[in-house]
Each structure stands twice: as structure tokens, then as C-alpha cells.
Amino acid sequence: MRLILVGPPGAGKGTQAQFLAEHFAIPHISTGDIFRANLKSGTPLGVEAKGYMDRGELVPDSVTNAMVADRLTQADTKNGFLLDGFPRNVVQSEVLAEIVEKAGTPIDAALELTVDENEIIRRLSGRRVCRNCGRIWHIDSDPTQDAAVCDGCGGEIYQREDDKEEVIARRLEVYREQTEPIINFYRTRSLLVSISAMGAVEEVTSRAISALLAHR
């Protein structure tokens, strides 16, 4: 199974990607994780990407296309993969189509997670991260006992710049302008599978698996 996850920030793509990758026994390939690793290490890519991410903007195609192409040649993608965070615009979709066509491994489905905008803002603006262990908490659904301290390791809890309301608004604007058109890209190719991402995590996962199996 070769899958792409699409949907706005805060739709739960990262969470669902982990469960779906496990269910279908395929690697979860997240460009977000790759960028964050570079940010933490302070690499030139990380420094360049940080400026865009802090403003709620997308990292340029030139920074991501070659990285993804290389990742898809690795041995663990032989039986499929799940892409989370790529493609994010039509140009990247076309690049990906060329990559998988040359490899003879076409995309099976693009899974769209839909969610109300008010819920997106609630989810993201309430998210908090441990500066030490990286665990993600939420002030509503999964709060720490002390708002400033991680229950797991005692590290400092903070709010990422891209989770602040003014940046979330910009991220949603960028999504509508640049990413939403790829939904039509995959719809016209009969690859789009859309489900609601509202509700409990396990309910969304079950909904996604059923829809993907029905699409095959």
C-alpha cells in the first residue's frame, strides 16, 4: 500500500499516519520529522527551514523534493510507504508522480482528513511540547499537572511558535492557497479518499482503514 495523507494543519495526520503505517506494515515517512531533526541539529537545512516554519509558511520545494526522492529509494519502501507532509502543492504532486512512475510503484490512494476550522485552532493552540523529551501535551485533552513542567521527564513545557494563534491563521491561509489544490489533483486521478477526522483517534483510524480497503 502506497499512501499519501492530505489535510489541514491540526487534522491529525501525524497521529493517524503512525496507526495506519503499523496496520499496513509500511514505513511512515514524515517530512516534518526530518525537518525537526535538522532544526535540532542546527544544520544548514534546519536553519533555512526554521525561518519558513516559524512564519507558518511552507518550506520551498527545492529543499524537500530531492530529500523525498532519495527516501523512497530505500529498502524499507519496497512494499509500500505512507507519506505525511509531502506533497503539499501541485508541483510537488507532479514531482512525486514522476518519481513513482519511474520506479513502477504508483500511488494507491491519497487519504484526505477533513476537520472543522474551529477545531483545528483549538487543537493546535492548546498543544504544548516538552523541550527535553519532545513529548506533546495538550492543555485541554492531555494537560500536565504543572503547566510549565513535563510529567514524564520534568523538562520545560513550551508552546511552539507555529502553534500560536496568529501563526495558525497564516498556516491555514497557506494551506488553502497552496495545498488544497492537490485534493483536486488526486480527485481527477480517482485516487482521493476523504474521511472526517472528527472524533476519537481510534474511531478515525477505523474509518480510514475501512475507506482505504473499500477503495482498493
Structural notes for this entry:
The model has no long low-confidence stretch (mean pLDDT 90). This protein has nine helices and eight strands. It is globular, with a radius of gyration of 17 Å. The protein is an alpha/beta fold and 216 residues long. The protein has a single domain, classed as P-loop containing nucleotide triphosphate hydrolases (Rossmann fold). It has a five-stranded parallel sheet, with helices on both faces. A three-stranded antiparallel sheet has the order 6-5-7. Helix content is 49%, strand content 15%.
Total separate domains = 1
Q: Judging from the principal axes of the Cα atoms, what is the shape?
A: globular
Task: List segments where confidence is low: pLDDT < 50 over at least 5 consecutive residues.
Answer: none
The fold-level CATH name is Rossmann fold
Strand content: 5-15%
- Number of DSSP strands? 8
Largest sheet: 5 strands, parallel
Order of helices and strands: EHEHHHEHEHEEEHHEH
Report the helical percentage: 40-55%
How large is the count of helical segments? Answer: 9
CATH class assignment: Alpha Beta
CATH-level-2 architecture: 3-Layer(aba) Sandwich
CATH superfamily: P-loop containing nucleotide triphosphate hydrolases
The SS-based structural class is alpha/beta
Rg calc: 17 Å
Q: On the 0-100 scale, what is the average pLDDT?
A: 90
